[in-house]
Amino acid sequence: MSNFCFKFSSDASETLTSILEPNVCNKVEWLPAKEILLDDCVHQTTGKKSIFKVNDLVVFYVVSSDENNHVVSIDKYNQSDLIPAKYEGGMKIWECTYDLVNYLSTSDKPINFEKKSVLDLGCGAGYLGLTAFKLGAESIHFQDYNEEVLYQLTIPNLISNIDKENDSSNFKFFTGDWESFVKLNNFQYDIILTSETIYNTQNHRKLHMTLKKKLKKDGIIFLAAKTYYFGVGGGTRQFEALVNEEGVFDSTVCWKCSSGNIKKIKLIFLKKNDSQ
């Protein structure tokens, strides 16, 4: 198990701010899931681009999408990291996303993405799905709660990394709440990638259900997260307790960083005796 800690700029390690109390989640109306069609979004690809590199892996991303070269944001929520059921933080690149990109790209035991179907769950800018694409995945589906995130970040980032030879039907985009997302279609995946999606304990059961319904029987999940999310109360311990309670998955820690707020990457898979 690797213990290397990736270092990033200070804004990548900010704690959650301006979030409503967790129990508010019981009183709000969550957005229904729907598919966003790539063909309807091609006009969104203009903007200043940059790259990030991990060893030989190069991923392009859009750093602005307007004529003034400002970083895109959902203006009405730009003072908040999270507002339950309104804005779930997709415009920010969260710290553990970089950890998981690094792990997938440099692991001593390389993950086989060739010809695999991948779900980037809670995708934000789509870095995890793009990494899977660069590593050979055949089809990648992206899901984020807010459709603005898909329009302004995820889709422009994808288009910056594909060419005319890539079959656009291999990429799909979904928005909305996980509870309705699992009912939207019957897609299942070889690999599910998700980062910093366990910050709110109110959503743990929905996330667990989504992972169970969307994972193929022989599939694997990589979940990257912090031990504790200040101001929200979620974290790896609470989610691990739910996983143990439900008895559907086995898991192991495949990466850990113990400096500061402990971060982990968990490898999760269905128990051998489980039938979906």
TrEMBL record:
It is an enzyme of class 2 (transferase). CDD domains: AdoMet_MTases. Keywords: Cytoplasm, Methyltransferase, Nucleus, S-adenosyl-L-methionine, Transferase. One of its GO terms (cellular component) is cytoplasm. It is found in: Cytoplasm; Nucleus. One of its GO terms (molecular function) is protein-L-histidine N-tele-methyltransferase activity. It holds the Pfam family Methyltransf_16. Its main location: cytoplasm. GO terms for biological process: methylation. Its EC number is 2.1.1.85. InterPro entries: Methyltransf_16, SAM-dependent_MTases_sf. Belongs to the methyltransferase superfamily. METTL18 family. This is protein-histidine N-methyltransferase. It comes from Clastoptera arizonana (Arizona spittle bug).
